[in-house]
Amino acid sequence: GLRTPRQGRRSVPAPDLGRPGGGGRVRAPGTRGNVACPLVSTLQMPGKEGQAETAPPRLRNTRCEADMLVRFLLEKHASKEPITRAALLKIVSRKYEARWAEILRRTSERLQLLFGLELREGDAGGRAYALVSKPGLEGDGGDEGPPKSGLVLALLGVIFMKGNRASEEEVWEFLSVLGVYAGRRHPIFGEPRRLITQDLVRQKYLEYRHVPGSKPQRYEFLWGPRARAHTSKMEVLQVLAKINDTVPSCFPQLYQEALLEEAAREMLLCAKQSHRPSILHLWSRSR
Fold it and tell me: What is the mean pLDDT of each run of 10 residues along the chain (287 residues)?
């Protein structure tokens, strides 16, 4: 089933990589004005109970910087341009220069979790970096195409957070924060609309259906049968919590719902096992 990518040793450690300096700030490609961040800003449920606890401004700011670095690195990866430390430092605001190692760590984690890319130092001095694809993510099941486990789990999490059904607009709002836009080919996922409305629907991870009575016509996403069979609400909540540098219990209502689902699954499993004849019973009947 779907599983989160393996969490091995960090490819990019947190040494002293130097102080950002020189030149003005360069905004990541594809961004206009202030970048919409952090990711949790697009994942709010109606009412306060389902929302994550508000992160302090210091944490939110490092998330924003990491989100911009992710976009920049994906653009470089798509164009096969070299990635230098100097170029990355120009993306990060000078006022966060003391937190560069932390921002780079968050960037590396997001790249691996959502896009299946590992950020590696390209030389001994840490002056250059390389993005390396990790095709063997757990849970891809050998399907052709790019590794999608992290993105699929995140999409399932959005649907869960929106009351177990998410409008097409809400899904695209979330994806846009990741730099994934309808009609714009993505360097990792290819054509996004086809991926989420056709490929993942055909693979039964998602359901994509018309909202009855909507005028003009609107569409929504739900969990598909394969997602319901091979993952859980707790698993996708853990992914969303990791994306937002928090823990599942920071989403109180969703956390309780996920716990209830786990308890129900355990009860169902126990009930099935109690009705299953034991080996000894079958042996005695055969005599």
Answer: 46 37 44 44 45 57 85 88 89 84 90 88 79 59 54 92 95 88 87 94 95 92 94 91 87 94 89 66 55
The 8-class DSSP code of residue 275 comes to: T
Annotated domain spans of the chain: 149-274
How large is the angle between the packed helices 233-243 and 100-115, nearest 10 degrees? 150
Tokens of 168: 């097409």
150 to each of 34, 59, 138, 175, how far by Cα in Å? Answer: 26, 22, 10, 13
pLDDT at site 274: 73
Question: What class has domain 149-274?
Answer: mainly alpha
DSSP characters for 109-140?
HHHHHHH-EEEEESSTTSSEEEEEE-TT-TT-
Contact criterion met (CB below 8 Å) for 207 and 201: yes
HEC per residue, 11-49 = CCCCCCCCCCCCCCCCCCCCCCCCCCCCHHHHCCCCCCC
Q: What predicted TM-score, i.e. pTM, was given to this entire model?
A: 0.71
Pairing of strands 219-223, 166-167: antiparallel
Q: Where are the beta strands (DSSP E) in 185-267?
A: 206-210, 219-223
Q: How far is CA 181 from the centre of its chain?
A: 15
